[in-house]
Amino acid sequence: MKVTVFGIGYVGLVQAAVLAEVGHDVVCVDINAERVENLKKSIIPIYEPGLTPLVQRNYEAGRLQFTTDAAHGVQHGRIQFIAVGTPPDEDGSADLQYVLAVAKTIATYMESPKIIVDKSTVPVGTADKVSACVAAVLAERGVELGFDVVSNPEFLKEGAAVADCQRPDRIVIGTDSPAVEEKMRELYAPFNRNHERMIVMDVRSAELTKYAANCMLATKISFMNEMANLAELLGADIEKVRQGIGSDPRIGYHFIYPGCGYGGSCFPKDVQALVKTAEKVGYVPALLKSVEQVNYRQKDKLFAHVHAYFDGDLAGKRIALWGLSFKPNTDDMRDAPSRVLMEKLWAAGAVVQAFDPEAMNEAQRIYGTRADLSLMGTKEAALRGADALVVCTEWNAFKAPDFEVVKEHLKHPVIIDGRNLYDPDMLEAYGIAYYGIGRGRSVATS
Ligand code: UDX
To answer: According to the annotation, is 89 in a ligand binding site?
Structure first.
């Protein structure tokens, strides 16, 4: 099938490449000419395992094209994906200006009926706004052409996006039109084999499904972080509690890992956006607000531990930091807990010696060159001459360090672990002071 994808960001690029891989003829349109030219040379704007060869292979096979020519893009696909960003505006609501600009572009150039698919994460009611926008432009042009607007949210996880897209656990389609449903079934048929993954519903329910999924996951995390904070005060070990509750299949083991708070491009933004959506319809989303508040506090926790360990005397202290990205297998530092920690350490006069397997360039881009941040080439180099070690991200490379080496390098043998990677008893045996999240021993409580 002929498909056009507007927006070659994270979601658009992965979806386009995966559709091309199964044989669809995909044109990607973006207003960023540099990005388009780079993609033609297989220079990918993001770090995502498996994406570069996928893009390269399909570009060379001619099934995946990149262009800034919107008119060409609109002519090409019967199906037009909108996969542009919906950043939060000043009050935290999702900003729809880019989505509506694409809708306008499609309406301006279309000469045949189109199925317009909202792939971006958009608030409930956006499909209606897209419809109204397209209808208005068509009316201005004085042409009568049929179009449908479908909601088809994505559920990709950064670091596993290609696999998630190739083997989705569900494909949510919001439409009231049986003809559109049939076309979407044809599009996704290669991903819907062996058992039914397609869940078809009305447009508004599909739009809310995306937010409900992310908010549920964020709620699980904040709940566990609250339990961890309690465990710390009560002398219990949250890791034991986690296993104890996860064994109940109604609760399950997924997404109940306590830590230094959730970050990334989705959870913080989506929880905030749903709070705003709720408030706009006169509902007070008490639970969602608490989920946000708990997470906000949790991101302070690592700093609170360091601050308490050094009795507030952080001026001139050197802190080794392992992990800058908001989670492993990505270089994304959006809303990463590491940023809250670093910024607080700097404000207190400390120096950070950081290492991350992928996010060093991103850290350089965000913070530039500053005297109180040293980006080190290895995790061992980050330890040299440091007063303490803080772990922010659970990269595999950090899971089994040589603790003798860690101890040797640190001026004060202490590890503050935001991801509960290590066994407290083992570290005690090494003579290293250890503070995890909710592990029954605390230097700081919040
Ligand atoms: C998330 C959703 O999982 C995905 O379905 C949606 O489409 C986009 O948002 P992503 O942001 O890539 O994906 O990351 P995810 O792996 O879900 O982790 C989000 C955050 O939660 C990370 O900061 C992670 O460290 C944290 N987390 C996750 C926990 O603190 N504990 C857990 O048990 C799981």
So the answer is: no
